[in-house]
Amino acid sequence: MNKLSVFFAQFKKRGGIEVVFSAFGTKLISLIVSIMIARTLSTEDFGLISYALMIIIPLIPLSGLGMDFILLRYGALTEFKSNLSIYTLKHGTLYSFLLICLIFILADVIAVEHKDSAFFIKLTSFLLFWIS
To answer: Does the keyword Membrane feature in the UniProt annotation (predicted)?
Structure first.
């Protein structure tokens, strides 16, 4: 029991409570926005956006090709933190941009069954840039 209380004391000391509430707040706001969007859009438009998101969301791990994880892993271990952060920012942005360009080129091919969704696929592909 003592180890558990020490763990929670250190968790609180390092700002863990704020992180938990921040994550909870983000999820709550996301839920509210999703409900508002679902009520605002027509059924057909909501379906097209959902279809586009189901194509883009599996590509999120490819955005930036893991450059953010390289910075997280090796940033604390090296004395060249600023060089590493510039390197990962440049290359991660480049890789995300190339992935978005590829999606723009292939959007009409991907949306064979739902021709109207090509626009939404191109629009939601920018999520890959903002997430990386």
So the answer is: yes
Closest-CA residue to 52 (of 112, 123, 105): 123
The answer to whether residues 83 and 102 belong to one domain is yes
**How is residue 46 written in tokens?**
């909501």
Its domain, for residue 22, covers 1-40
Cα–Cα distance list, 123 to 9, 42, 70 (Å): 45, 18, 28
Query: Consecutive 10-residue runs of the chain (132 residues): their mean pLDDT?
Result: 79 78 87 88 86 87 77 70 78 87 90 83 83 62
Q: Do the Cβ atoms of 46 and 114 come closer than 8 Å?
A: no
pTM of the model as a whole: 0.65
Compute the distance between CA of residue 1 and CA of residue 103 in angstroms, rounded to an integer: 52
Examine the domain organization and report whether 69 and 126 are in the same domain: yes
Same domain, 47 and 17: no
Do 47 and 95 share a structural domain? Answer: yes
